[in-house]
Amino acid sequence: MFRGDEQAARACAALCDALPRLRGLWAPRPTIDPGELGPCSSGEHAVWAAGPSLWNGARLGADLAELQRLDADNMRRVGSLLVAVADGPAAVERWLAEHERR
User: Is the pTM of this model over 0.85?
Assistant: First the structure.
């Protein structure tokens, strides 16, 4: 679980910032609607949709099948965040220390 909205927003931003086309699109909330992304790869869509799903439970279209098509680095990034969320706020902070852009 996240400590609060600020921690959740930081995690969502870190997910998005890992993909060049999504960099900066989550600060501190989504800055555009998913429909405004235009054509994007399934990986970009899955990462973009995972953010709101984690942040507030919104279902924006990333399902398990789509997540399974992520490249290895992005699958690890999303998967390790899910594990951190399950382990609690301190684990999310450790995940953020590793994945946030400085």
Answer: no
